[in-house]
Amino acid sequence: MQNERRKPLKPVQTMSAAKKRAMHARLSPDQKIYLAKRQVSGFSMNLITFLLIAGLCFVILYPFIRLVPSVLSNIEDLGNPNVIWIPEKFSTVSFQAASRMIMPEGVMTMVKSIVYALAVMVIQVFISAMTGYTMARVKYKWTGLLYVVVALCFLVPRQSLLLAQYIYFNHFDALGVMRIFGQEVNLINKPVTLYLMALLGFGVNQSLFVLIFSQFFKNIPKELEEAALIDGCGFYRTYFRIMVPNAIPAIATVAILAFVWNYGDTYYTRYFDPSGPYMASKLATTFIDANKVTLLERVRVWYNVPTTTDMAFDALKQAGVLIFLAPLLVLYLFAQRWLVENLESSGLVG
After folding, report:
1. Where along the chain do its domains lie?
2. Closest by alpha carbon to 189, among 276, 116, 264?
3. CA nearest 262: which of 102, 130, 123?
4. CB 314 within 8 A of CB 113
5. Among residues 180, 194, 249, 321, which is most buried (max CB within 10 A)?
């Protein structure tokens, strides 16, 4: 009856151990053998999976574990055969010396590197999202050719384009416009060059970002745009009001990748702005074999170390790498779950 109250459902109770034993006693010998094989097979698969994951984690973490006895040991104790995993005397001299070598302006060097990576990240996300949306939604005669060109920009090595880019920015004239008002401008060794490359779509792996956004916008139903058009939204208003809010997973994924790759880029920064305060470039040019004697001499003078060996130079290099990776590790701790969850919806797979 309609007015009759339904009785609440009883919670599902788990089977007690006594009932399980009773059911197991009623099984035939063949059923018991089959059940035992299933349990052994399940346990074996779980054990193999655990061993594979543990082995993979060990392979990944082993280099970082090996850094502990070198970067946290006293400089004089490096090479001591008695020290394997735990240093005899803990010291931060390696970190202090490495930070002075790769961060000549102190913490501001790292801050400038992070600000540069964030600025280029914003430009790349803005340009790549609009380009990807246009490729996915605007249909014209040469759409297929455009996809081929974007894919080739990602597949062609950067070295093959370096000479043309260097000549273009060395004699920058903005498509001939600047010749009308004056002379050409040399943009080499100026940070504006790196921002212009991102603005023109030639930033670090920017063609990949365009493909990610294009794939993502293809998967969004067209009914959203049709409904926005009926409500009176134009092309640009539909993009900024409807499509961009729905593309948050792709934006987050591209933003994280763009920040990591621009923060660690040494190719474009070395050729177009070699004197800029970029930690990746400082790290790549400081700890080279040609500077070994000079760097070890600085350590002896700065921290009153009587003797230094080649292992001290390796410790300095490893400490510099850890200092450089600190912002990326912080970013990964806060964003790794979001990044993994959004990889599929952002178009990286499928």
Report:
1. 93-346
2. 276
3. 123
4. no
5. 194
